[in-house]
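Risk register update: the risk that structure generation would not scale has been downgraded. Supporting records follow, first protein first.
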Amino acid sequence: MVLPEARRGWYQNPCAEAGEPWYTSALKMSEPRLITLPSFCDQRGTLAVAEWPGTLPFTPKRFYYLYNLLPDALRGVHAHWKEEEVILALSGSFTVTVDDGCKRTEHRLDRPEIGLHIPSLIWHELHGFSTGAVCAVFASEERCDQEDYCRDYQQFLQARKARSKPRALP
């Protein structure tokens, strides 16, 4: 019996070069993922905890938040060369669209104990803010460095393609 290509360990990843095995591009970069913060609830309310190391995939060096957001506001619309982020909806809700250069995925954040980890070189856009939404961000870099922002989508796509090329083993 002849197995289909995917069952023999080869999956044609649309992001991969022709004939490249699925794992060569899949293992090179982290993907955005949801993170659940530990929370503790009693009759007084709920406490959610972000600890590092441990809860978050990096040690935060900066924290900031967005508020008084208009429902049709569009925030983000960039990638970072180095910085990683964890984005949370502390109040209300909003959508984060993430793009790795091959696929776009939407995450609706509406619970304060659920965060979205955005690794470096992932394009992200925040939109669809509810009234009273508060967006909190833990960032891996100490200062807001404009040189770390990639605001040109075509430049982002070129950087992703360059980063996903196979490299020779030492």
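Supporting record for the second protein:
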Amino acid sequence: MAEKRDFLIGMLMGSAIGAAVTLLYAPQAGEDTRDLLRQRANDAKEKASELAGNVKSTVTESAESAKVRVSGAADAVKTKASDVVDTVKTRVSDAAETVKSSTHDLIDRSRNVVETKKAQVTAAVEAGKQAYEQKKDALEADVQADVNSELATTSPASAGTETTPPSTG
């Protein structure tokens, strides 16, 4: 755009200079030449004003067009950024729900394992108690049988002799 403006200014300047040189060398009276120079100067001034108006309107139109394009691009960027934010929020929310669900599943499984192990330990303790009671009863029965057998071997005939009770040890 600057190249067009420079070209047009150069063209106007060259035309004005050419017209002035032509008038100065033309065979006319001094008053006619001055009038002609004024007329040409006014024409050049009008053309320069017209050219300035054209350049101004072209610049204004270009600025408006650029403003519209920039505004559209800004809106597009804003929309895209909003879409990206929404996508990120959705993904983070989904990930949080997945972690929450996985955590609850893990807690439930851990609870089940603990309850199962607790039941196994309780059953083992009960089995140990029962085995203890059975062994205790069996040992007491053996001791009673030994005592009875010892008493049976000592007869009333040897009642005059002292007997030493069997040692438990």
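The longest helix spans residues 30-153. On this basis the risk owner (M.S.) recommends closing the item.
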